[in-house]
Fold each of these.
Amino acid sequence: MDNARTLNLLGALALSIMDSLNAVVAVQAGHGGETAAALVTLGADPGLSINALRQILNLSHPGTVRLIDRLAAENLVERRPGVDGRTLALFLTDAGHQRRQAILSQRREQLQLALGTLTETERKQLTNLLEKMLTAMTTSELRNFVMCRLCEEEVCPADHCPVEQKYRQLLHI
Protein backbone atom coordinates (compact mmCIF):
# COMPACT_ATOMS: atom_id res chain seq x y z
CA MET A 1 0.00 0.00 0.00
CA ASP A 2 1.24 3.49 -0.86
CA ASN A 3 1.60 5.30 2.48
CA ALA A 4 2.45 8.63 0.81
CA ARG A 5 -0.81 8.53 -1.13
CA THR A 6 -2.80 7.69 2.02
CA LEU A 7 -1.18 10.61 3.82
CA ASN A 8 -1.97 12.90 0.91
CA LEU A 9 -5.61 11.77 0.79
CA LEU A 10 -5.97 12.25 4.54
CA GLY A 11 -4.47 15.74 4.26
CA ALA A 12 -6.82 16.66 1.41
CA LEU A 13 -9.85 15.37 3.33
CA ALA A 14 -8.80 17.17 6.53
CA LEU A 15 -8.28 20.43 4.64
CA SER A 16 -11.58 20.11 2.78
CA ILE A 17 -13.49 19.47 5.99
CA MET A 18 -11.74 22.33 7.82
CA ASP A 19 -12.41 24.76 4.98
CA SER A 20 -16.11 23.85 5.04
CA LEU A 21 -16.29 24.00 8.83
CA ASN A 22 -14.47 27.31 9.03
CA ALA A 23 -16.83 28.86 6.51
CA VAL A 24 -20.08 27.76 8.16
CA VAL A 25 -19.08 28.24 11.78
CA ALA A 26 -17.75 31.73 11.05
CA VAL A 27 -21.18 32.66 9.70
CA GLN A 28 -22.92 31.20 12.77
CA ALA A 29 -20.40 32.71 15.17
CA GLY A 30 -20.69 36.12 13.55
CA HIS A 31 -16.91 36.38 13.25
CA GLY A 32 -14.04 34.28 11.97
CA GLY A 33 -10.92 33.20 13.77
CA GLU A 34 -11.40 31.46 17.09
CA THR A 35 -14.80 32.99 17.90
CA ALA A 36 -16.71 29.76 17.33
CA ALA A 37 -14.15 27.70 19.25
CA ALA A 38 -14.40 30.14 22.17
CA LEU A 39 -18.19 29.79 22.30
CA VAL A 40 -18.10 26.00 21.99
CA THR A 41 -15.33 25.67 24.58
CA LEU A 42 -17.00 27.95 27.11
CA GLY A 43 -20.25 26.04 26.71
CA ALA A 44 -18.49 22.76 27.41
CA ASP A 45 -16.25 24.14 30.19
CA PRO A 46 -18.01 27.07 31.87
CA GLY A 47 -15.95 29.16 34.23
CA LEU A 48 -12.64 29.03 32.37
CA SER A 49 -10.28 31.93 32.96
CA ILE A 50 -9.05 34.13 30.14
CA ASN A 51 -5.62 32.52 30.50
CA ALA A 52 -7.01 28.97 30.21
CA LEU A 53 -9.08 29.95 27.18
CA ARG A 54 -6.06 31.70 25.67
CA GLN A 55 -4.03 28.51 25.88
CA ILE A 56 -6.78 26.36 24.37
CA LEU A 57 -7.30 28.78 21.47
CA ASN A 58 -3.56 29.45 21.07
CA LEU A 59 -4.10 33.21 21.18
CA SER A 60 -2.15 35.96 22.88
CA HIS A 61 -3.52 37.33 26.13
CA PRO A 62 -4.46 40.68 24.51
CA GLY A 63 -6.06 38.83 21.59
CA THR A 64 -8.15 36.72 23.95
CA VAL A 65 -9.20 39.79 25.95
CA ARG A 66 -10.32 41.50 22.72
CA LEU A 67 -12.24 38.39 21.70
CA ILE A 68 -14.00 38.21 25.08
CA ASP A 69 -14.68 41.97 24.99
CA ARG A 70 -16.40 41.52 21.62
CA LEU A 71 -18.40 38.50 22.78
CA ALA A 72 -19.43 40.31 25.97
CA ALA A 73 -20.50 43.37 23.94
CA GLU A 74 -22.69 41.04 21.86
CA ASN A 75 -24.18 39.60 25.09
CA LEU A 76 -22.79 36.13 24.34
CA VAL A 77 -20.32 35.87 27.23
CA GLU A 78 -20.30 37.26 30.74
CA ARG A 79 -17.44 37.68 33.18
CA ARG A 80 -17.87 36.67 36.80
CA PRO A 81 -15.43 36.66 39.71
CA GLY A 82 -13.09 33.67 39.58
CA VAL A 83 -12.61 31.22 42.41
CA ASP A 84 -9.34 32.81 43.54
CA GLY A 85 -10.70 36.37 43.58
CA ARG A 86 -7.97 37.59 41.21
CA THR A 87 -9.14 36.11 37.94
CA LEU A 88 -12.36 36.33 36.02
CA ALA A 89 -14.43 33.29 35.10
CA LEU A 90 -16.09 33.23 31.68
CA PHE A 91 -19.62 31.95 31.11
CA LEU A 92 -21.97 31.89 28.16
CA THR A 93 -25.19 33.86 28.41
CA ASP A 94 -28.47 32.37 27.16
CA ALA A 95 -27.77 34.03 23.81
CA GLY A 96 -24.27 32.52 23.88
CA HIS A 97 -25.69 29.04 24.45
CA GLN A 98 -28.09 29.53 21.53
CA ARG A 99 -25.24 30.67 19.28
CA ARG A 100 -23.17 27.68 20.41
CA GLN A 101 -25.97 25.30 19.45
CA ALA A 102 -26.27 26.94 16.03
CA ILE A 103 -22.51 26.54 15.49
CA LEU A 104 -22.59 22.87 16.49
CA SER A 105 -25.63 22.22 14.30
CA GLN A 106 -23.87 23.69 11.25
CA ARG A 107 -20.72 21.75 12.11
CA ARG A 108 -22.73 18.52 12.29
CA GLU A 109 -24.35 19.22 8.91
CA GLN A 110 -20.99 19.82 7.24
CA LEU A 111 -19.48 16.67 8.72
CA GLN A 112 -22.51 14.68 7.58
CA LEU A 113 -21.68 15.59 3.98
CA ALA A 114 -18.45 13.61 4.26
CA LEU A 115 -19.95 10.74 6.25
CA GLY A 116 -23.03 10.49 4.06
CA THR A 117 -21.08 8.63 1.40
CA LEU A 118 -20.25 5.73 3.74
CA THR A 119 -22.28 2.63 4.53
CA GLU A 120 -23.14 1.81 8.14
CA THR A 121 -20.36 -0.79 8.24
CA GLU A 122 -17.86 1.72 6.87
CA ARG A 123 -18.97 4.29 9.46
CA LYS A 124 -18.33 1.82 12.27
CA GLN A 125 -14.89 1.06 10.84
CA LEU A 126 -14.16 4.76 10.52
CA THR A 127 -15.28 5.38 14.10
CA ASN A 128 -12.85 2.73 15.36
CA LEU A 129 -10.03 4.19 13.28
CA LEU A 130 -10.77 7.76 14.41
CA GLU A 131 -10.79 6.67 18.05
CA LYS A 132 -7.42 5.00 17.57
CA MET A 133 -5.92 8.02 15.81
CA LEU A 134 -7.28 10.55 18.32
CA THR A 135 -5.99 8.46 21.21
CA ALA A 136 -2.52 8.48 19.69
CA MET A 137 -2.62 12.24 19.19
CA THR A 138 -3.58 13.01 22.80
CA THR A 139 -0.28 13.82 24.50
CA SER A 140 -1.15 16.36 27.23
CA GLU A 141 -3.94 18.18 29.05
CA LEU A 142 -3.64 21.19 26.77
CA ARG A 143 -3.68 18.99 23.66
CA ASN A 144 -6.84 17.37 25.03
CA PHE A 145 -8.61 20.74 25.18
CA VAL A 146 -7.16 21.99 21.89
CA MET A 147 -8.29 18.91 19.98
CA CYS A 148 -11.82 19.11 21.37
CA ARG A 149 -12.32 22.88 21.17
CA LEU A 150 -15.05 22.49 18.52
CA CYS A 151 -16.41 19.15 19.75
CA GLU A 152 -20.03 18.50 20.49
CA GLU A 153 -19.32 17.07 23.93
CA GLU A 154 -22.98 16.25 24.50
CA VAL A 155 -22.70 13.43 21.94
CA CYS A 156 -19.21 12.35 23.01
CA PRO A 157 -19.22 12.52 26.81
CA ALA A 158 -15.97 12.09 28.71
CA ASP A 159 -16.59 8.44 29.55
CA HIS A 160 -16.82 7.63 25.80
CA CYS A 161 -14.32 10.16 24.44
CA PRO A 162 -11.02 8.64 23.27
CA VAL A 163 -9.23 11.94 23.88
CA GLU A 164 -10.50 12.23 27.45
CA GLN A 165 -9.79 8.56 28.14
CA LYS A 166 -6.19 8.93 26.96
CA TYR A 167 -5.80 12.11 29.02
CA ARG A 168 -6.99 10.24 32.10
CA GLN A 169 -4.43 7.52 31.36
CA LEU A 170 -1.72 10.16 31.18
CA LEU A 171 -2.78 11.37 34.63
CA HIS A 172 -3.08 7.80 35.94
CA ILE A 173 -6.70 8.38 37.00
Amino acid sequence: MKKVETILLVGSEGFLGKNLVRLLIEHNYNIIGLDIQPTNNVKYTHFVQKNIFDLSINDISFLNKLNSYGVIYTGGVSRNGIAATYPIESSQNTVSALVKLLELLNQTTPPTWMMLTSTREVDILLDNKESLFGKQKIYSTLKLTSELIIESYSEYWNIPLKILRLSDIFGIGDHKSKVIQIFLNKAIQNDIIEVNNTNIKLFLTEVTEISSTIFKYVKKIEDDIEINNFEIIQLWDDNYYITLLELAYISLELNPYSQSKILTKDGMTINYSVKNKIKPNHMKVLENMNKLNIINLKKSKLK
Protein backbone atom coordinates (compact mmCIF):
# COMPACT_ATOMS: atom_id res chain seq x y z
CA MET A 1 0.00 0.00 0.00
CA LYS A 2 1.15 3.52 -0.77
CA LYS A 3 2.78 5.31 2.18
CA VAL A 4 0.80 8.30 3.38
CA GLU A 5 2.60 11.49 4.33
CA THR A 6 -0.30 13.05 6.22
CA ILE A 7 -2.37 11.79 9.14
CA LEU A 8 -5.57 13.33 10.50
CA LEU A 9 -5.42 12.77 14.26
CA VAL A 10 -8.73 13.27 16.05
CA GLY A 11 -8.27 14.07 19.74
CA SER A 12 -4.76 15.30 19.06
CA GLU A 13 -4.56 17.37 22.26
CA GLY A 14 -5.66 14.53 24.53
CA PHE A 15 -3.43 12.42 26.76
CA LEU A 16 -2.71 9.77 24.14
CA GLY A 17 -3.11 12.16 21.21
CA LYS A 18 -0.28 14.47 22.29
CA ASN A 19 2.12 11.55 22.59
CA LEU A 20 1.13 10.24 19.16
CA VAL A 21 1.53 13.66 17.56
CA ARG A 22 5.03 14.01 18.97
CA LEU A 23 6.08 10.55 17.78
CA LEU A 24 4.56 10.84 14.29
CA ILE A 25 6.12 14.26 13.69
CA GLU A 26 9.49 12.84 14.75
CA HIS A 27 9.06 10.29 11.95
CA ASN A 28 8.32 13.03 9.40
CA TYR A 29 4.56 12.67 9.10
CA ASN A 30 2.47 15.76 8.46
CA ILE A 31 -0.14 15.94 11.20
CA ILE A 32 -3.57 17.51 10.92
CA GLY A 33 -4.83 17.96 14.46
CA LEU A 34 -8.51 18.08 15.37
CA ASP A 35 -9.49 18.81 18.95
CA ILE A 36 -11.85 21.00 20.95
CA GLN A 37 -8.89 22.06 23.11
CA PRO A 38 -6.41 24.74 21.94
CA THR A 39 -2.79 23.92 21.18
CA ASN A 40 0.63 25.54 21.51
CA ASN A 41 2.21 22.97 19.18
CA VAL A 42 3.47 24.90 16.15
CA LYS A 43 4.49 21.73 14.31
CA TYR A 44 1.01 20.80 13.11
CA THR A 45 0.56 21.04 9.34
CA HIS A 46 -3.03 22.10 10.11
CA PHE A 47 -4.88 22.36 13.38
CA VAL A 48 -8.65 22.66 13.66
CA GLN A 49 -9.88 23.68 17.10
CA LYS A 50 -13.52 22.72 17.00
CA ASN A 51 -16.06 20.39 18.47
CA ILE A 52 -16.81 17.83 15.75
CA PHE A 53 -20.49 18.84 15.90
CA ASP A 54 -19.49 22.35 14.81
CA LEU A 55 -17.24 21.06 12.03
CA SER A 56 -18.17 21.90 8.43
CA ILE A 57 -16.97 20.86 4.99
CA ASN A 58 -15.09 24.15 4.70
CA ASP A 59 -13.04 23.32 7.82
CA ILE A 60 -11.57 20.23 6.16
CA SER A 61 -11.77 21.20 2.49
CA PHE A 62 -7.96 21.08 2.28
CA LEU A 63 -8.23 17.28 2.39
CA ASN A 64 -9.35 17.42 -1.24
CA LYS A 65 -5.83 18.51 -2.17
CA LEU A 66 -4.23 15.38 -0.69
CA ASN A 67 -3.52 12.30 -2.75
CA SER A 68 -3.70 10.15 0.37
CA TYR A 69 -3.95 10.43 4.14
CA GLY A 70 -4.61 8.24 7.16
CA VAL A 71 -6.97 8.78 10.08
CA ILE A 72 -6.25 7.95 13.72
CA TYR A 73 -9.37 8.53 15.80
CA THR A 74 -8.68 8.83 19.53
CA GLY A 75 -11.76 10.92 20.31
CA GLY A 76 -14.77 10.09 22.43
CA VAL A 77 -15.30 9.36 26.11
CA SER A 78 -12.30 7.60 27.61
CA ARG A 79 -13.59 6.54 31.03
CA ASN A 80 -16.36 4.34 32.37
CA GLY A 81 -17.36 6.74 35.12
CA ILE A 82 -17.97 9.63 32.73
CA ALA A 83 -20.19 7.51 30.49
CA ALA A 84 -22.22 6.34 33.48
CA THR A 85 -22.63 9.85 34.91
CA TYR A 86 -23.26 11.69 31.64
CA PRO A 87 -24.77 9.10 29.26
CA ILE A 88 -26.40 11.54 26.81
CA GLU A 89 -23.32 13.72 26.41
CA SER A 90 -21.09 10.65 26.25
CA SER A 91 -23.21 9.12 23.50
CA GLN A 92 -22.97 12.32 21.48
CA ASN A 93 -19.21 12.69 21.98
CA THR A 94 -18.44 9.04 21.28
CA VAL A 95 -20.91 7.77 18.66
CA SER A 96 -22.62 10.77 17.05
CA ALA A 97 -19.37 12.71 16.69
CA LEU A 98 -17.72 9.78 14.92
CA VAL A 99 -20.63 9.47 12.46
CA LYS A 100 -20.53 13.23 11.82
CA LEU A 101 -16.81 13.14 10.98
CA LEU A 102 -17.08 10.06 8.78
CA GLU A 103 -19.92 11.64 6.81
CA LEU A 104 -17.88 14.81 6.30
CA LEU A 105 -14.94 12.72 5.08
CA ASN A 106 -17.31 10.93 2.72
CA GLN A 107 -18.28 14.29 1.25
CA THR A 108 -14.67 15.33 0.75
CA THR A 109 -11.95 12.74 0.14
CA PRO A 110 -12.18 9.45 2.08
CA PRO A 111 -8.95 8.39 3.82
CA THR A 112 -6.47 5.75 2.65
CA TRP A 113 -6.72 3.88 5.95
CA MET A 114 -8.15 4.35 9.44
CA MET A 115 -7.40 3.45 13.05
CA LEU A 116 -9.75 3.70 16.02
CA THR A 117 -8.74 3.50 19.67
CA SER A 118 -11.28 1.51 21.67
CA THR A 119 -11.20 -0.25 25.03
CA ARG A 120 -10.74 -3.59 26.80
CA GLU A 121 -14.23 -3.04 28.18
CA VAL A 122 -15.59 -4.14 24.79
CA ASP A 123 -14.00 -7.55 25.30
CA ILE A 124 -15.65 -7.74 28.71
CA LEU A 125 -19.04 -6.78 27.21
CA LEU A 126 -18.75 -9.47 24.54
CA ASP A 127 -17.21 -12.24 26.65
CA ASN A 128 -18.38 -11.62 30.21
CA LYS A 129 -21.34 -9.26 30.16
CA GLU A 130 -22.54 -10.52 33.55
CA SER A 131 -19.57 -8.82 35.23
CA LEU A 132 -20.85 -5.42 34.10
CA PHE A 133 -23.77 -4.15 36.16
CA GLY A 134 -26.21 -1.35 35.41
CA LYS A 135 -24.64 1.75 33.93
CA GLN A 136 -21.26 0.01 33.67
CA LYS A 137 -22.51 -1.33 30.34
CA ILE A 138 -22.93 2.14 28.81
CA TYR A 139 -19.24 2.85 28.21
CA SER A 140 -18.47 -0.49 26.58
CA THR A 141 -21.67 -0.34 24.50
CA LEU A 142 -20.75 3.10 23.13
CA LYS A 143 -17.25 1.90 22.25
CA LEU A 144 -18.55 -1.27 20.57
CA THR A 145 -21.03 0.83 18.60
CA SER A 146 -18.18 3.09 17.46
CA GLU A 147 -16.20 0.04 16.35
CA LEU A 148 -19.10 -1.24 14.24
CA ILE A 149 -19.78 2.17 12.71
CA ILE A 150 -16.21 2.81 11.61
CA GLU A 151 -15.98 -0.77 10.34
CA SER A 152 -19.01 -0.16 8.12
CA TYR A 153 -17.40 2.95 6.60
CA SER A 154 -14.10 1.15 6.04
CA GLU A 155 -15.97 -1.57 4.15
CA TYR A 156 -17.88 1.04 2.15
CA TRP A 157 -14.65 2.80 1.19
CA ASN A 158 -12.78 -0.51 0.84
CA ILE A 159 -9.86 0.64 3.00
CA PRO A 160 -7.84 -0.95 5.84
CA LEU A 161 -8.99 -0.48 9.42
CA LYS A 162 -7.22 -1.28 12.69
CA ILE A 163 -9.25 -1.18 15.90
CA LEU A 164 -6.90 -0.81 18.85
CA ARG A 165 -8.46 -1.87 22.14
CA LEU A 166 -6.59 -0.22 25.00
CA SER A 167 -6.53 -0.90 28.71
CA ASP A 168 -5.44 1.18 31.70
CA ILE A 169 -3.13 3.79 30.19
CA PHE A 170 -1.04 5.87 32.57
CA GLY A 171 1.93 8.21 32.32
CA ILE A 172 3.19 11.77 32.60
CA GLY A 173 0.40 14.22 31.77
CA ASP A 174 -2.38 11.81 32.72
CA HIS A 175 -5.83 13.19 33.60
CA LYS A 176 -6.30 14.30 37.20
CA SER A 177 -9.57 12.37 37.31
CA LYS A 178 -7.89 9.01 36.64
CA VAL A 179 -7.77 6.67 39.62
CA ILE A 180 -3.95 6.50 39.65
CA GLN A 181 -3.74 10.28 39.97
CA ILE A 182 -6.50 10.38 42.57
CA PHE A 183 -4.80 7.81 44.81
CA LEU A 184 -1.37 9.45 44.47
CA ASN A 185 -2.76 12.87 45.38
CA LYS A 186 -4.66 11.49 48.36
CA ALA A 187 -1.48 9.86 49.66
CA ILE A 188 0.48 13.09 49.19
CA GLN A 189 -2.19 15.11 51.05
CA ASN A 190 -2.63 12.53 53.85
CA ASP A 191 -6.26 11.96 52.87
CA ILE A 192 -8.18 8.73 53.37
CA ILE A 193 -7.98 6.42 50.34
CA GLU A 194 -11.28 4.60 49.88
CA VAL A 195 -11.29 1.42 47.79
CA ASN A 196 -14.84 0.28 47.07
CA ASN A 197 -13.97 -2.71 44.89
CA THR A 198 -10.66 -4.20 45.98
CA ASN A 199 -10.49 -6.85 43.25
CA ILE A 200 -10.82 -4.64 40.15
CA LYS A 201 -7.87 -5.40 37.90
CA LEU A 202 -5.82 -2.65 36.24
CA PHE A 203 -3.91 -3.89 33.20
CA LEU A 204 -1.20 -1.23 33.19
CA THR A 205 0.01 0.17 29.88
CA GLU A 206 2.28 3.21 29.70
CA VAL A 207 1.33 5.94 27.25
CA THR A 208 4.65 6.27 25.38
CA GLU A 209 4.81 2.50 24.95
CA ILE A 210 1.27 2.47 23.57
CA SER A 211 2.14 5.32 21.20
CA SER A 212 5.15 3.37 19.92
CA THR A 213 2.99 0.28 19.39
CA ILE A 214 0.39 2.29 17.47
CA PHE A 215 3.17 3.71 15.31
CA LYS A 216 4.29 0.17 14.48
CA TYR A 217 0.77 -0.55 13.25
CA VAL A 218 0.86 2.59 11.13
CA LYS A 219 3.92 1.15 9.40
CA LYS A 220 2.30 -2.29 9.21
CA ILE A 221 -0.88 -0.96 7.62
CA GLU A 222 1.20 0.75 4.94
CA ASP A 223 3.20 -2.40 4.23
CA ASP A 224 0.13 -4.64 4.03
CA ILE A 225 -0.74 -5.96 0.58
CA GLU A 226 -4.43 -6.52 1.35
CA ILE A 227 -6.39 -3.37 0.55
CA ASN A 228 -9.39 -3.90 2.84
CA ASN A 229 -7.54 -5.48 5.75
CA PHE A 230 -9.50 -5.37 9.02
CA GLU A 231 -7.98 -6.20 12.39
CA ILE A 232 -8.87 -5.88 16.08
CA ILE A 233 -5.78 -5.61 18.29
CA GLN A 234 -5.63 -5.91 22.08
CA LEU A 235 -2.86 -3.71 23.50
CA TRP A 236 -2.40 -5.18 26.97
CA ASP A 237 -0.97 -8.26 28.66
CA ASP A 238 -3.54 -10.47 30.41
CA ASN A 239 -0.85 -11.66 32.82
CA TYR A 240 0.32 -8.20 33.90
CA TYR A 241 -1.98 -6.30 36.22
CA ILE A 242 -2.46 -4.93 39.72
CA THR A 243 -5.69 -4.69 41.68
CA LEU A 244 -7.30 -1.45 42.77
CA LEU A 245 -6.31 -2.27 46.35
CA GLU A 246 -2.70 -2.81 45.29
CA LEU A 247 -2.78 0.58 43.56
CA ALA A 248 -3.82 2.18 46.84
CA TYR A 249 -0.89 0.51 48.60
CA ILE A 250 1.60 1.49 45.90
CA SER A 251 0.48 5.10 46.42
CA LEU A 252 1.59 4.79 50.04
CA GLU A 253 4.83 3.05 49.07
CA LEU A 254 5.64 6.02 46.85
CA ASN A 255 4.88 8.37 49.76
CA PRO A 256 6.42 6.59 52.78
CA TYR A 257 5.74 9.50 55.17
CA SER A 258 2.07 9.74 54.25
CA GLN A 259 -0.45 9.60 57.10
CA SER A 260 -3.17 8.31 54.76
CA LYS A 261 -5.29 5.32 55.73
CA ILE A 262 -6.79 2.84 53.27
CA LEU A 263 -10.45 2.00 53.82
CA THR A 264 -12.13 -0.99 52.16
CA LYS A 265 -15.67 -2.33 52.41
CA ASP A 266 -14.48 -5.91 52.82
CA GLY A 267 -11.70 -5.13 55.31
CA MET A 268 -9.08 -6.57 52.97
CA THR A 269 -5.44 -5.57 53.53
CA ILE A 270 -2.06 -6.26 51.90
CA ASN A 271 1.14 -7.26 53.71
CA TYR A 272 3.59 -7.37 50.79
CA SER A 273 5.37 -4.80 48.64
CA VAL A 274 3.38 -4.07 45.47
CA LYS A 275 6.49 -2.60 43.81
CA ASN A 276 7.68 -6.12 43.10
CA LYS A 277 4.67 -6.71 40.83
CA ILE A 278 5.32 -3.66 38.64
CA LYS A 279 7.78 -3.48 35.77
CA PRO A 280 10.85 -1.36 36.67
CA ASN A 281 10.25 1.11 33.82
CA HIS A 282 6.60 1.49 34.84
CA MET A 283 7.68 2.00 38.45
CA LYS A 284 9.97 4.80 37.31
CA VAL A 285 7.09 6.50 35.50
CA LEU A 286 4.90 6.22 38.61
CA GLU A 287 7.69 7.75 40.70
CA ASN A 288 7.98 10.67 38.27
CA MET A 289 4.20 11.15 38.23
CA ASN A 290 4.22 11.27 42.02
CA LYS A 291 7.06 13.83 42.08
CA LEU A 292 5.19 16.05 39.62
CA ASN A 293 2.02 15.80 41.69
CA ILE A 294 3.93 16.87 44.81
CA ILE A 295 5.30 19.91 42.96
CA ASN A 296 1.91 20.84 41.49
CA LEU A 297 0.12 20.53 44.82
CA LYS A 298 2.73 22.77 46.48
CA LYS A 299 2.27 25.35 43.71
CA SER A 300 -1.51 25.29 44.11
CA LYS A 301 -1.18 26.02 47.84
CA LEU A 302 0.97 29.09 47.10
CA LYS A 303 -1.68 30.67 44.90
